[in-house]
Amino acid sequence: MLAIIGGSGLSQLSNLDVMSREIARTPYGEPSSVLAFGRLGGQEAVFLARHGHQHTIPPHKVNYRANIWALRDVGATHIVSVASVGGILVGLLPGDLVIPHQVMDYTWGRAATFFEDEGDPVAHIDLTEPYDARLRQSLLEAAKAAAIPARDGGVYAVTQGPRLETAAEVNRLERDGADVVGMTGMPEAALARELKIPYAVINLVANHAAGRNDSRQGIIFDKLEAVLQEAMEKVRVILAHVSLPGEDSSDHKS
Ligand code: HPA
Known about the structure:
Elements lengths: L1 E5 L10 E6 L12 E6 L2 E7 L14 H10 L4 E10 L9 E3 L2 E4 L27 H13 L5 E2 L2 E4 L8 H10 L3 E3 L5 H7 L4 E10 L12 H21 L13
Parallel strand pairs: 1-4, 1-5, 5-11, 6-8, 7-9, 9-10
Antiparallel strand pairs: 2-3, 3-4, 5-10, 6-11
Helix pairs in contact: 2-5
């Protein structure tokens, strides 16, 4: 079953035909929202709102462990994460979609592993390729089938937030090799890998990153909502076109 974690601008999936809702509990606490089960584009799907239904949970307070655990518990076989970002790469425009292939973690202090309780074996998962190659391919094919442009590849830098970056920080991220910057991609990707659930991301460019282009003098918040709304419509269509790779899709072993 496909699981979708919706970020800013996607606290509901209007094209998900909701059939039931469940409040999940996990050893790590409660996930960010109730789980909504239904059908999306003909297949079973479960939806979770990362920041809560009323968008009340900031990126550094999201219970990433409870979210991933709850999705695994209800039988999610693949997770697609939707996350809005600022665009760093020249040419990326607000409203563009990116299917990143790499991630860099600048977050701190977040509960980032399932393997830390007393008596747990130490686990070092392989995260060389943080995203599932076949699930990424499915997303790209879904976008193509829906005639929606989506960039194949990008390096997603994840900052702690909730504040946005300084212009100098964005310059540093660019020097580090980042193409987009957001606040929620980690530890989500690592936690999904710990539980061996194929995971991939759709980044939605909400704005030019701080100090760039029309964000040179500051990020203009008035515009963000409209950009997010419009781009999320494209994301909804892509999600409805995704056909999941086989259950053995995990192209990594850990
Ligand atoms: N920086 C970090 N996170 C974001 C941004 C940004 O510019 N835009 C949307 N999420």
